[in-house]
Amino acid sequence: MYIAFNEMSDMLAGRDSLSIKRAVYLAEWAYYEGKLDYKTDFCDEIDRIVKFIRSFHEINQLESYKTGMQMAISSYIVRPYSGNGYTPYTYDFDTFFMDDEPWERQFVSRTLKTHKGQCRSIPWMYKILANELNAYVSLAHAPRHSYIMYKDEDGITPEEWINLELTTNAMNPSWWIKQEFEICDSAVIVGTYMTPLTDIQTVACQMADLAFGYKEKFHRYDEFTYYCASRSLEFYPMNPNAWIIRGKSLERIIHDYLFTTGHVIDEYAAYLISLMEETKLRYDRTYMTEETEEIRKRRIQQAIESQKYLQEKTLQK
After folding, report:
1. How many beta carbons lie within 10 A of that of residue 23, not counting itself?
2. Do 149 and 138 contact (CB within 8 A), yes or no?
3. Pairing mode, if any, of strands 145-151 and 138-142?
């Protein structure tokens, strides 16, 4: 875990080259305790896919579109071709309805192997492929959801940016996303949701996910999760999940420290409490949308319907 933290931290600080592909791998490698090989379990398959997409782009003469490479990546993911073994990348319903979903369900390495994913792993895979193919795209967030954004340079939609939902290969308008996920205007204005992330912010997200993976694996928040969240927030302060990790980590640190002092509030305890107050304030300023049961049920139904829709379109062809 500390090796992954240090390498990602060096990327964020500019001491090492920034690589989203490497950052994603590091977070997953740390969770698997080193039992994930960068070349054989990650790079080899990505390189193979990139080679196919380049050929697909050329054969289908997509260079006539400014966003032709983005189109090629989308087609590879959602349609059956020889390059994906005639097996598109579909929603992973195997664990979708589980109350305690396995953490690795969201891993890109798993999606590469199984061709199954969800609203985190498939957009992250898309982003990695786009970076390898020099196609400018960004990840963006909605509550408990990720999707792809890129500028509509070909004028396909009435909006400046395309919001690409990969489970249906649909280009959703901004108003629909706001309404569907019950996002308030303030959350959009401050950059919490529906905002294209820079590559540095994207790596900072992986630093927060490293902390989440640590918590899922060891069932605790502690100094490590605190440092991960704090480092992440230096570069992406509008990530509410990172503020939640920081807050829960501080709760544990304060609890453990007060136990050693007999619950006496000394200078250091007061400092920790001030950090907690700052964390709560900064979290509130993200205007995070809390997922209600209604939103969750709607999200499940949409996933089912979208997958059915894609399968029907594939059969028609």
Report:
1. 25
2. yes
3. antiparallel
CA atoms within 13 A on the CB side of 203: 26
Q: Where are the beta strands (DSSP E) in 64-223?
A: 90-91, 116-117, 138-142, 145-151, 161-165, 170-171
Count CB atoms within 10 A of the CB of residue 61: 9
Instruction: Give me the sheet containing 138-142, strands edge to edge.
Output: 138-142, 145-151, 161-165, 170-171
Rounded-to-integer distance, Cα 32 and Cα 258, Å? 33
In angstroms, the CA 317 to CA 304 distance is: 21
Residue reference for tokens 């909006």: 159
Tell me the C-alpha distance between 30 and 8, whole Å. 12
- Tokens 């706001």 identify what position? 178
Calculate helix-pair angle for 240-260, 223-235, nearest 10 degrees.
140
Secondary structure of residue 56 in the 3-state scheme: helix
The predicted model scores a pTM of: 0.92
What are the tens digits of pLDDT across the range 110-165?
999 999 998 899 999 999 999 999 999 999 999 988 999 999 999 999 999 999 99
Count of other CB atoms within 10 angstroms of residue 203: 24
Q: Which residues contact 298 (CB under 8 A, 6 or more apart)?
A: 180
Single out the residue of 78, 74, 73, 81 nearest to residue 312, CA to CA: 78
